[in-house]
Amino acid sequence: MTFNRRDVLKACLSAMPAAALSSRSVSAASLRALQSALATGAPANPLARMLTIFLRGGNDSMNTIAPIADPDYPTFRTNISLSLGASDPNRLCKRVPRYPAVGIHDKLDFLHGLMSQAGGGPVAVLHRIGNFEAERSHFTEQHLVETGLQQYLASAEGWVPQLLPSLGSTAPMKAVSESNRLMRMYLSSAANKAAVHLQGVYDSNPVRNIDVPFAIPGTPEALVARAARGVSDPNTTAYPLVGSGSYLRSNLRDSVDILTGLRNAPPITHDDVKYPALNQGNATWLLSKFKQFFLRLEESITFLNRGDSNIVGLELGGFDTHKGQLVAQAELFAVLDRAIKSAYDDLSAGSDPFLILVVTEFGRTARDNGDPDPMVLTANAGTDHGVGGLCFAIGSTVNGGLYNMSHPSWPQDAAAPTGNADWDFLATTPSTGTFANALVPITDFRVPFVEIALNFFGFNATEIGNFDSVGAEWGQILANQGLVRNQLLGFV
Fold this sequence. Notes:
The chain is globular. β3 and β4 (99-105) form a beta hairpin. The chain has two domains: 41-164 and 313-343 and 364-417 and 424-492, no CATH class; 165-309, no CATH class. With 492 residues, the chain is α/β, with parallel strands linked by helices. The protein has helices spanning 5-13, 18-21, 34-37, 73-76, 109-115, 138-147, 245-264, 286-306, 325-347, 447-456, 461-465, 471-479; strands at residues 49-55, 65-66, 93-96, 99-105, 123-130, 175-178, 196-198, 207-212, 225-230, 241-242, 311-316, 354-360, 389-395, 401-403, 443-444. It is built from twelve helices and 15 strands. The strands form two sheets. Strands 1, 5, 6, 7, 8, 9, 10, 11, 12, 13, 14 and 15 form a twelve-stranded mixed sheet that branches. The protein has a three-stranded antiparallel sheet with strand order 2-4-3, covered by helices on one side.
């Protein structure tokens, strides 16, 4: 029998009190009393696992979770608004349990099922999340979301590596970017918190490139380390290594061994029902467009379930829907929903806490960009770059519900979470200025990341304040809970 680091940690931690490892050790009711409640927070949980999915392009929040009871919604979005009884399947939505004034896109069927579970299920929808500086640039806003910083800094590392030293980062592949290009969210600045970048899809090329890149040029650690090995030939022992010091060489060597081990002992058996990639049965149209995404997802779940990884990330593009939004979003949501279902089913089969975090760089405009005459429908309409958007959190310790999307006149379960502010009817949308034709954010885009570090991974306020690049900003968020934009939501 073979044991990985996760098995050893379970054995070592099994004797500890359950409360010491609980990512819910700080209750939602006490989240705003941070100065007294967080000084003795729970220790970081080395068994916690998180999958991040970045929706590239700026997903339209209001056609994901739609404010169908807002009287201005159908008039602001004459060409693309969703409704409960729409004859166009791409404009159909389902009522959200506990929040009957709100609808979820019909293609997000699995998410709807989870949200229909008792108590709201393990899905938190965080609405009106955004950057109060409202840059509206893909390049800038993606950079900010991935670095976790308010201001653009070209050399900044990602926020994910900040968590690694206290989660046992000396083990290889603690964090993995499963992407064609390295996701900035996983870019590190030091060897003691290095994340691995896997560029190729595991069955598309016999040679895998494994990178350990660094964020700050001009330092010895800025050298890019790479290992390449033919994973289709497990007997191959020679592979090139370059890098900065023995740590990188050993990290890469161990990473290659981990990859080989995961593929062969026992071997990964591709499941084309959960991760459709082959030309058989259920794959059909998913084959050509999304094969690589599902193969990356399958390997990501393998790392989290069977490997040493705590955090693995991948991305799904196509959400910059200036035109043809109804068709594009329906297709992308079908893919996303299948991905979340497969990841959730496999991650929930284990006993370790897990979280699936789905983010995007910004929301989209309040009005669609079709013909302004409501009598002239424009089938090719879309939306433009906005500000306030949404993210999803799905997992074993999530306090399910809709956050920042309730209104005093809307019916809903009295016990359901509501977030930190009411929904503003779209008629109040600014016509000029920073938030012109956009949802004004309620919660700063960094708050969900802070809350995940605090209540899911179990860092305390002092530890978060000491994170290298984000510590000062995240510490200020925790210290200034009097500002609504900084207030934690209690979703995890």
